From TrEMBL:
Protein's name in the database: Acetoin utilization protein AcuC
Keywords from the UniProt entry: Acetoin catabolism
Annotated pathway: Ketone degradation; acetoin degradation
InterPro entries registered for this protein in UniProt: AcuC, HDACs, His_deacetylse_dom, His_deacetylse_dom_sf, Ureohydrolase_dom_sf
Domain of life according to the entry: Bacteria
Family: Belongs to the histone deacetylase family.
Residue span(s) of domain Histone deacetylase: 10-306
Length: 382
């Protein structure tokens, strides 16, 4: 999976996948008796074509065969998505990982599945965007629908708007897409506002919470709990698919949010609980953004995997010394000592009250006003 590599100077380093897998194994997560580790296979062209056009797939293959080529109209060979040899195969393998996860849930072989190498949520039907070639999360959702799942809720907590996934399901009432992200006024891709609520046949199927820059743990979790549980419960999905980009962390260079590892772990716990209460625990989680490859990404996604196993790793757990030694030897730096950051993740419940002079509360209320009535919910009280 680390063949998905835009080059040594690109923010999305495949090293983050290697470090995550190493940390999860050192923590014993991958060796738990309830865990099965599957290899990601490359998705076929027919599978990719469930969400992408044949012309686009051919263009990705063409550019990947000769990286000197570019196709900027399709987002290939750009600054965000530089061409590299084997681009098609590498992107197809990330996508195949999410299909393997979906198939395990469909067959009943697993109730929960994680592909931390996935989460390529900016890729649209015809175009690469924002480091994303093929939209694996959307492919997993389609796979679930094709297998007879009636409704899927997609929850995206990446710092960036999940625009590609939203666009693919824009007019599909079977899929609820919820994106909690930094406002497009200050961050790529410049979309994802409260008034984006889905197409004419699926009004209310798209939900966006556009957070003010510099929102921290308390505001981030307040916004999540003021919107996500209410709508997911009203929608009543049979499976939840969630995207766990961790670039909202305060140390991440590609966003302006101020969350912690602790808050992102709490959000994953909340999604797991939501899956348990709404759809019998059936939950497929993918990775996404996250560019602090030592301090943040491996811890957040190891927590995600541990939560999926039903045995969360406590925040005060020491980071295993063999992993820290590997980081010292390979990267010449000290890794975190604990799996958490001793952050204050207290958040104020929406039921306590709405403050119209607070920018965060205004954006939450804008989302609730736009969507809640479509589900029979009161934007002020539910």
């Amino acid at each position: 999976m680390s063949a998905y590599n835009f080059g040594p100077n690109h923010p999305m380093s495949p090293k983050r996948l290697d470090l995550t897998a190493r940390l999860a194994r050192e923590l014993g997560i991958l060796d738990l008796p309830q865990v099965r580790v599957e290899h990601a296979r490359a998705a076929s062209d027919d599978e990719l074509a469930t969400v992408h056009s044949r012309g686009y797939i051919a263009a990705v293959r063409h550019v990947g065969e000769d990286p000197s080529r570019s196709d900027p109209d399709r987002g290939l060979g750009t600054e965000d998505d530089p061409a590299f040899a084997g681009m098609h195969e590498a992107g197809a393998r990330l996508a195949g990982g999410s299909l393997v996860a979906a198939d395990a849930i469909i067959s009943g072989a697993a109730v929960r599945a994680v592909n931390f190498g996935g989460g390529m949520h900016h890729a649209s039907r015809e175009k690469a965007s924002g480091f994303c070639i093929y939209n694996d999360a959307a492919m997993a959702v389609v796979r679930l629908l094709e297998a007879g799942v009636a409704k899927v809720a997609y929850i995206d907590i990446d710092a960036h708007h999940g625009d590609g996934t939203q666009g693919i399901f824009w007019d599909d009432p079977r899929v609820l897409t919820i994106s909690l992200h930094e406002s497009g006024m200050t961050l790529f891709p410049g979309t994802g506002f409260a008034n984006e609520i889905g197409g004419p046949q699926a009004l209310g199927s798209a939900v966006n919470v556009a957070l003010p820059a510099h929102t921290g743990d308390g505001g981030w979790l307040r916004a999540f709990h003021a919107v996500v549980p209410q709508l997911v419960k009203a929608f009543a999905p049979e499976v939840i698919v969630s995207q766990h980009g961790c670039d909202s962390h305060r140390s991440d260079a590609l966003s302006h949010l101020n969350t912690s590892v602790d808050a992102q772990r709490e959000a994953a716990l909340s999604i797991a609980d939501l899956a348990q209460s709404t759809c019998g625990g059936r939950w497929l989680a993918v990775g996404g953004g996250g560019y602090n490859i030592v301090d943040v990404v491996p811890r957040v996604w190891s927590h995600l995997m541990a939560i999926a196993t039903g045995q969360p790793v406590p925040l005060r757990t020491p980071v295993p010394e063999p992993w820290r030694e590997h980081v010292r030897e390979r990267y010449g730096r000290d890794a975190p000592q604990l799996m958490g950051e001793d952050a204050d993740t207290w958040w104020r419940s929406w039921e306590v009250g709405y403050n119209p002079s607070d920018a965060l509360d205004r954006t939450v209320m804008a989302t609730r006003k736009a969507v809640f009535p479509l589900y029979g919910l009161d934007p002020w009280f539910d």
